[in-house]
Amino acid sequence: MKHIRHILSVLLVALIGAMAAGTVVERFHGNEYALSHVYGSWWFVALWALLAAGMVVMMISRKSWQRPVVCALHSSVLLILLGALLTMTTGQHGEMTLKPGAAASQFTVEKHGKSRTANLPFTLTLDRFEVETYPGTRTPMDFVSYLKISDNGTVTDAKISMNHILKYRHYRFYQSDYDEEGNSVLSVAHDPWGVGVTYAGYLLLFAALIGLFFDKKGSFRALLQKTAGKAAVLIGVLTTIALLPAHAAGKPSVLPKESADRMGQMYVMYKGRVCPLQTLAKDFTTKLYGKARYQGYTPEQVFSGWLFYTDEWQNEPIPRLERDLKRGNERAAEEKRQIINMLQNGQLLKMFPHADSAREVTWYSPNDQLPVDIPDDEYLFIRKQRSLCQEYAVMGDFESLNTLFDKTKIYQEKYALGLTQPKHQYRAERLYNRLTAGRWLPMVNITMGLICFAIALIGIGKGRRLPKPVRLALVVWMSLLCAFLAMLFILRWIVGGHVPMAGSFDSMNLLALSICVISLIMSKKYEMALPAGLLMTGVVLLVQMMGGSNPPVTHLMPVLSSPLLSLHVTVIMIAYALLFFVMLNGICAVVVRLSQPENSDYLQRLQDISMIMLYPAVALLAAGIFIGAVWANISWGNYWSWDPKEVWALITLLIYAAPLHSTVWKAFRNPMFFHIYGILAFLSVLITYFGVNFLLGGMHSYGA
């Protein structure tokens, strides 16, 4: 038994090291090279096979069949590995291009840099290919291929779109791409054995993970009986933030706040969708100045200054532009110059809808080439509106200017044929823009978190709890913060029309919200939960702000329009939040050990709390990985592609699964070893999220 444990330890470390090295190899040599020289190599497959064999020997020697849940959990892993082996040895993945009206029965298979042709036992004929767009825009919503399947004299109609695959005789076809000639590019997957076995492993794993929390003889139930208690989640109501008026001598001219607000209420075609002009103004200001406000001016006022008082604003320094020039970042500097030029020449102001004879609506800017058949009244309004606004602004006739803004909005709603935003979506976007105009929240959280965390650490070192007034203030603040982040999440959901989880900004917001909720739930039984949660929330929001501040809400890419994406991101973010608390528990344990060497009971209590969080964290991480695999299989026909993010998520899962096997690796029974391991293990989470996004790249990289 001892030798088996040592062998398993060596194999696990070697496997983790090989996967980590593979992500570095992919960074410098590409995915195909990493697949052929690392992930698809004989020695890598041998490592997995030896690890699986070691698991079988360990299960037999420990008579795991006497514990059905544990047996099912480990059997599911073996089943998933078997499915992966079958996919690798018997599966085919390739691509085929269909031309309208031309029958095709062959596809190209790429493997380890080599290609070959494979035959289908039937033929496919493309009737037509269509790009479906979001209403009132030219932004793609879906790509759809209409096909005919000819099989032994039988002809069947079929349809393929993003997230809607075609399954026929153990072949699966996915909409991959298209070209300007109307040809449709399909991904083809033929894996009759691997997918079924792997999915069976996923289902068994899911059932075993649920059973793990209800197993009366399991460690988790024992920990709950030992330490757990009920805690209330306190969520308060956040009052909306009032925008402070500001205007002082010496500042460049802008429209009065009321007029600027009226301007922001008009519609504009921006980022492929119709939205309030306020959104464009906010993004414009953030791009130039790094924040949505400048010298106390609202985003709409800054935008109005550049639009109507250009000479004054051109003489106003732009610190971010000057910084880019000093650092030699010509590309970033050019982007800022370009957005100013686009505003001044009117390219940004696509504010005027016009419907053609087919009632297809196109949005034009004042200087665009207009259709020859456009009515004279529309033509004059589009051409003269901006110059008339300029005249009223320079003369200071803001009452007439406000009236013109209102008339422009009426014009937009009339000629857009009802394809502007619904009222509830429009109001939600304007409220969201107001609530996210400041950058004070991360700094307040970090400052309060550092102070309260320091107070808590000092108290732990002296055997005292947080003072009641401090704890009450933290509960109130965290409740308000939780409500605020939830409000932002809901508003982005309403505005975008989809669950906001498709990018780094949205996932960081969800992570911050998860930390807030977990902090409140744990606050009664775990005195470090609130200070630690406040500090981590501040750090997450700061990273979110540095990574792009507040990106505009846009339509989803077609492949991301799947409910599995929301579920995948949600469970992963909650798992990361729980693992963060395990790490902070470790820091507290180190402080206690240094200040109170004799207080071993407290160290054990901290370990018990960490273990209670570790079980659901590992379960959620495992669930998130296999949900992502199912989503990938539905969207791309390949449930595992050895992308760096996939690899590091798997590494993180293996690292954190080890402490749950304290009967195998007895070192984890030592509280200090467990806590130090928990601190170091969090590095894998940081690499998984930040390292992959900003360094390693891959298709999961938000920064790529």
Structure description:
- This protein has 704 residues and is of the alpha+beta class.
- The protein has 6 domains: 1-57; 63-90 and 193-217; 92-190, Tick-borne Encephalitis virus Glycoprotein, domain 1, CATH 2.60.98.10; 257-420, no CATH class; 439-561, no CATH class; 563-704.
- The protein has helices at 2-29, 31-39, 42-61, 68-90, 194-212, 219-227, 257-264, 277-289, 299-308, 310-314, 319-326, 330-344, 376-395, 398-415, 423-435, 440-461, 468-496, 504-522, 529-546, 563-595, 600-636, 644-657, 671-696, and strands at residues 92-98, 103-111, 114-133, 140-151, 154-161, 166-168, 171-178, 184-190, 267-270, 273-276, 352-355, 361-364.
- The strands form 3 sheets. It has an 8-stranded antiparallel beta sheet with strand order 5-4-3-2-1-8-7-6. The protein has a two-stranded antiparallel sheet with strand order 9-10. Strands 11-12 form a two-stranded antiparallel ribbon.
- A hairpin with a 5-residue loop joins strand 7 and strand 8 (184-190).
